Structure formats: C-alpha cells, structure tokens
Amino acid sequence: MSQTLSLDQFRTAFHAGGLVSVAISASGGAFFITARSREGESLILGTTRDKKRRAFRDAGKAVAVMHKIGARHFEVDTSHWEPERTDDTRVRRPDAAERQHQAQQARSHDAWFRRQVQAALDDDRQPVDDQTVQARFAQRRAEARRLLENDT
User: Fold this and answer.
1) How many other β-carbons are positioned within 10 Å of the β-carbon of residue 62?
2) Residue 124 is inside which H or E element, if any?
3) So what's the pLDDT on residue 35?
4) pLDDT tens-place string over residues 29-43
5) pLDDT tens digits, residue range 85-123?
6) Which range marks the domain in which residue 103 is found?
7) Which residues contact 24 (CB under 8 A, 6 or more apart)?
8) CATH no. for residue 80?
9) Nearest CA to 139 among 150, 151, 128, 147?
10) Where is the region Disordered (predicted)?
C-alpha cells in the first residue's frame, strides 16, 4: 500500500532523511514522483488539495519538481511509459477556459474603453454648456409637440 504526500510533506521527509530512494516513474502517458521510506513504505507525490497522485505529462517538469525538493540523484523508470496516451492524463478544466475567455473579453473591453476616453480627451471641439443643450432639447420637444398636434 502506498501513501500519498503533499509537496511540503514530501520535501520535509526528504530533508529529514526519511527517504531511502526517490524516483520518477512513468505509467501510461504520465510521470509520477515516487519514493521509498526507511520503513519500506512506498510514497507518491500527490496534489495538495485532494491527495490524488500528481501526474506530470512532461518528464522535464517532474525533474524540475525533484530539483526544487533538493533531490539531485534519482532513478527514472520509463518502462511503462506510453507516449501516445499523453492526452489521457490531461485534466479538462472547462471552468478555467471560461474564466480565461471572460478575462480576455474584459481586457478587450478595457482597451476599447480606454481608447474611447482618450479620443474624447483629445477631441478639439469646444464643449457645449448645459444651458445650450437644455435649450436645444426644449426646442426639439416643442417642435415634436407641434407636429403631433398638427397630425391629430
């Protein structure tokens, strides 16, 4: 039976000398970081939240994590690696895709809005005061009323 450890737990066990060996093992299209404890227990690096096995599609990323942990010498076992199954390990995140889409729309809208504001600031035309605008609209309303009265 193997135990799943978070990255912090794995790092702590490694630095405390509780691990006899560490390795990167392939299974299907993914790579996993594994270790053997001094008690002979099999350990697997897991995700922080739900303690599932942490899968790496790219062996280089698994090596980078091993390097961050502090491991400089480790075994790599690719005997069960099936590169054609790499897509099987991909985690689908439609919620993340939607968030990215919304963020892109927000950035586009922000850029458009900033262009509109800058165009208004750069406008050479003289501003029209409120009294003039109110007088023009009063005149237009009066004209519209006259037209309505003439139609009836």
Assistant:
1) 24
2) none
3) 94
4) 899 999 999 999 999
5) 765 555 667 788 889 999 999 999 999 999 999 999 999
6) 95-151
7) 31, 32, 33, 34, 59, 62, 63, 66, 74, 75, 76, 77
8) 3.30.720.210
9) 147
10) 76-110
Our count of domains for the chain comes to: 2
Task: Tally Cβ neighbours within 10 Å of residue 12.
Answer: 13
110 SS3 class: helix
Beta-sheet pairing, 19-27 with 75-77:
parallel
Residues 21 and 87 in one domain: yes
Task: Order the strands of the 30-37 sheet from edge to edge.
Answer: 2-5, 42-45, 30-37, 19-27, 75-77
Judgement on whether residues 126 and 55 belong to the same structural domain of the protein: no
Going by C-alpha positions, the residue among 82, 10, 17, 87 that lies closest to residue 53 is 10
d(CA 70, CA 92): 31
Cα distance between residue 17 and residue 20, in whole Å: 8
For the purposes of burial, counting CB atoms within 10 Å of the CB of 43, is it exposed (0-12), middle (13-18) or buried (19 or more)? buried
The answer to whether residues 67 and 117 belong to one domain is no
User: Could you tell me if 67 and 101 lie in one domain?
Assistant: no
